[in-house]
Description:
Blueprint: H1 4-18, H2 21-41, H3 49-73, H4 79-90, H5 99-113, H6 121-132, H7 138-149
Amino acid sequence: xxxxxxxxxxxxxxxxxxxxxxxxxxxxxxxxxxxxxxxxxxxxxxxxxxxxxxxxxxxxxxxxxxxxxxxxxxxxxxxxxxxxxxxxxxxxxxxxxxxxxxxxxxxxxxxxxxxxxxxxxxxxxxxxxxxxxxxxxxxxxxxxxxxxxxx
Length: 151
């Protein structure tokens, strides 16, 4: 199975052949973000799939924020383009966990750690986030943990 970077390379070539400009633009944007992250990591280093998924999740989050801002401002001009880019980015991300799946894993970690209050939130998040990495938004995970610990 190809890595995310390899898949993007193949899909970029196919988008060029198909003359699919919106998809090509989104793929180029993702490749650029991945390349910048690799450069920031250090010279002559490559990103593994987990790191690549983190970069793409960040790109997806940025698109969602932009879409929200466009809607709040009543701007429809760039909305469709941002939504198309978001759809392409999300197609490369691992399948997202449902709220119930996140909650079940959070409950398991809380029980394992013996967390009782919000004072234990940092320990719970520290143990939970590696399992959620790339499969759930950190804000959603944080909200669920906060909800569970405040009961």
